[in-house]
Amino acid sequence: MLDWVVKWRVGFLGREWNVVDIGSAVVLLSLHSLALLAPFHFTWGSFWLAMGLYVVTGVGITLSYHRNLAHRSFKLPAWLEYSFAYCGVLSLVGSPLDWVSTHRTHHQSTDTGIRGEIPIAPSRDSGLVILYDGRLKNVGDMKRQPYYKFLHYTYPFHSMALGVLLYTIGGLPFLVWGMGVRMVVVYHISMSVNSICHRWGKQVWDTGDLSKNNWLFGLLAHGEGWHNNHHAFEYSARQGLAWWQFDLTWYIIRFLEIVGLATDVKLPTEDQKKRRALHNKIKEERLDLQ
């Protein structure tokens, strides 16, 4: 019944656009335009509001969407799992079903030798609102839960409600900084993990792809910039594997584990690290050549 949402196309700028593409473009353009007003509506209150929401909604992506839902790196009680997922919804990068489906596809592509990146948000297959879920074939574990199906069909409306709330509380400064500036930063940083971190940085693990560790995005993306670490051990709840690799998301997970809320926390063993270490592979190749 909703096939037309995906199948309808219109040609523009050398490509075909569907309803989802157009909606995504409108949202991106609107938020970037809103962010341009930031210098004219700056207050310290609105600035710290944006910073706080950036951390909360960013952790919603990294802790919930990515490590908990996409890779099942640890378990949480349902009430806490759903709460973190809702924080991710307010980042407006896609519903939990849509984001997790896209990310699992990303790993299938890189791990099978297709050296490309499938962006997390927004693209032809992830955008303003996904009404057609027939393609979400790799998230059956989540589709069985009514909560995630509800968020899948309603997720942009939650951010709209947040925007209304911010404007009601703090006027245009809160709206500009809490929605416009915050969302532009979230979009560019989250998309950079799957682009910049496949081009610039350092590889320390034999992953067979182009993933790299980038310290800057390790800081900006709450630990997600340690991308080569992640591709080496995608099941790991910790991505900043060295003590000096700042990983805010892991620190939160570790705290939840200490207080008994996070269980079945997965980490690579020392033996697994040795087998994956790039310098060990180089040594083996040199010995084979001798």
Structure characterization notes:
With 290 residues, the chain is an all-alpha fold. The protein is built from 12 helices and 2 strands; from the N terminus they run H-E-E-H-H-H-H-H-H-H-H-H-H-H. The radius of gyration is 20 Å and the shape is globular. 59% of the residues lie in helices and 2% in strands. A hairpin with a 2-residue loop joins strand 1 and strand 2 (15-17). The longest helix is centred in the middle third of the chain and has 48 residues, at 146-193. Strands 1-2 form a two-stranded antiparallel sheet. It has helices spanning 3-7, 19-35, 44-70, 78-89, 96-111, 140-143, 146-193, 215-220, 227-232, 248-258, 270-276, 278-289; strands spanning 10-12, 15-17. Residues 111-134 have low confidence and may be disordered. The chain has one domain. The termini are far apart. Helix 2 (19-35) crosses helix 7 and helix 3 (44-70) packs across helix 7.
List keywords for this structure.
290 residues; mainly alpha
First-to-last CA distance: 64 Å
Approximate helicity band? 55-70%
Number of strands: 2
One letter per element, helices H and strands E, the order comes to: HEEHHHHHHHHHHH
Strand adjacency order, main sheet = 1-2
Number of domains: 1
Uncertain residue segments:
111-134
Mean pLDDT: 86
Determine the structural class based on helices, strands and strand pairing.
mainly alpha
Rg from Cα: 20 Å
Characterize the largest beta sheet: strand count, sense, and whether it forms a barrel: 2 strands, antiparallel
- SS element count, helices: 12
How does the overall form come out from the CA principal axes? globular
Percent of residues in beta strands: under 5%
